[in-house]
Amino acid sequence: MRLFRCVLLVMVGICSVVLSGCSFVWTTENGNPATPEDIKAVVEKEFSVVHPRLVLQSTVVEKEKPFQRNVYVFYDESNGFSFTINSVVHRPTLPAPGGERDNNADFAYSQAYLVHLNSSLVESAKRYSMRMATHEEALELAKSKATRVAGTNKIPLFTYDEIVFVDKAVKGEDVLTFMKSIYSQYKPQDNPALLPTERSIGFYYLPKGEEDKTKAKYLISFRFKAKNDWKETMLTGIGSTGADTSAVERDFVSILDHMIRQSI
């Protein structure tokens, strides 16, 4: 048993060196969580594609040692939003003594950035005669009791991170152009950092002048994933046998044009 524990501790030591750039580091149960300076350095490096410049706003010790939990609030001066990080020491995942230093910096920053991005997307949608729900509106719509039929089942109508309403004035080409714009902002320079988890967008038909969004008709949805390029992103929503991106884009436009016409 002692030999097993020694071998395990050696393995953990090696992992600590190899994984020092990850979000967890081996420590003791009375060790300190990652500091605000640690978090700032990691986030500014990981998300350098959007040029964050972080300023610490507050620090709260949520739980004292052992297994300390800290909460940090940062403000990103470059992009203009605040976000909250949990920085903790918890029991090891491996069956060994000590503790693991962990934080949710990557997830917390990316989600806060994408929510912040929503306001500019709402304005951008207007240029294509579309109406995009604000983040707050999307949360409220998700709570509504509106449903749609999927196969033989009724499911909630609004289940997507972003919600866009189109009317008969919108063309498939408009939707394609808007989607490409969103893709370029979710994956700037094809960098996947902002998508540690996938993000979804749903398109709905709603006649111009209709204010009751629960009367919208579901058309199609797409998912943005870190591993997917633009072509693969389109294929999360449409069926296409196109051999290249241009062919898939042509199918995209044709399918969306047909869906909108059928909904009028």
TrEMBL record:
Leader sequence range is: 1-20
Q: Which domain of life is it from?
A: Bacteria
| Record keywords | Signal
Q: In its UniProt entry, what is this protein called?
A: Lipoprotein
